[in-house]
Amino acid sequence: MGYIPQQSLENLKKYSYKGVDKSIISRYVLNPFWTWFVTLWPLSVAPNTITLTGLAIVFFNFFTMIYYDPMYLTEKGGAEGPPQWIYFTWALGLFAYQSLDAIDGKQARRTGMAGPLGEMFDHGCDAMNTTLEVILASQALNLGRSWWTVASQIATLANFYLTTWEEYHTGQLYLGVCSGPVEGILMIVAIYTITGFYGPSFWDQKFFTVTRLDHISFLHKLPNLPLNESFMVFGAFGMAFNIISSYINVRRATKAAGKPSVRPLLLLLPFVVAASIQIAWLSQPEFNNSAIINSATFVPFLCAWGLQFAHQVGRMILAHVTSTPFPRWDWIWIWSIIGAVDANLPHLLGRAPIIQTSLRNTTIFVYLTLTISFLVYARFCTLVINDITNYLGIACFTVRRKDEHGVWRHKEVPTVDEKRS
Question: Which residue ranges traverse the bilayer (predicted)?
């Protein structure tokens, strides 16, 4: 018996991708480029191979941060920052990821491989990229190990969760006039580029001072925040706009289907619960210098959080493509709950933690959490890919399909004339 029940597998053949992209930049600038760019790829290359290539570039960017700034992961004092030229490679790498992520669907249609597997694979890679870019962007913005970085993680994951939640209830992926996969990524590319020219300290300058608005009298009542913190505030307004827009779309879809329009809001609670567990763990009273946010365990903690989130939204997408109930609980949270409760025993029971009694023990526990989170997500991906490919008779990384005799054959790609007809 596989991971996906048989009755749910049968719904895979009914699935068809639907998407709406209202971005002006995407329509008039990027899409013509993507349409040309996909023609450079041979039809023998599977769409998921393109997606995985993009994620590999992001991982390379992440490893360059670790290589050129090892203090970020080894010393409590924090990071010194990589050489400025590295930020240009991050900008190029993220733009390459965006481009490859955009053309995998076009390649799927070119090769006749469009389907639920591509949807699952694409969203899984996007989910992992989200946390990695939070860490890289926070480094470029000179936020370092701080609650601003945590706020950035929450806001970014929340936007991703909202999009997935919206797609589950409306049946289509909706990207508005300003979305994370388009404008959001381009803003981060711009941040990397600016940091490459001026260095991370550029973002510590005051917003009103840099924009020369400090001479306006009524603005004196507002705090003159640094550029990096101002960017976080701007992101908070963007998240509020996305929440409202997503709910309007869900409300419209549920009303059209004759379903309750308030009940879907309850399905936002799983994200609130998951994020609250992580915040509670980070909010631990410092005992023997064991506070995560002030130590070298901060980055692996964020990575573990990101993998748990990827598992959560992966199950949401699986529920979408198989038309099954929305997942409300994820058992991997139990591990983080143990960490949060143990870290807060001084507040809860007035006694020292049992596990995280020192910085060394905290580090071991956080890396163990990272390992378990990785194994759980890797198991989920492996089992789901295996079930879908076996049921649909397709390959994940090659353009092949099983014939009526169960023999693997390279898929016959229709010619341009056949597609037009």
Answer: 49-68, 173-194, 231-250, 262-281, 287-310, 331-349, 364-385
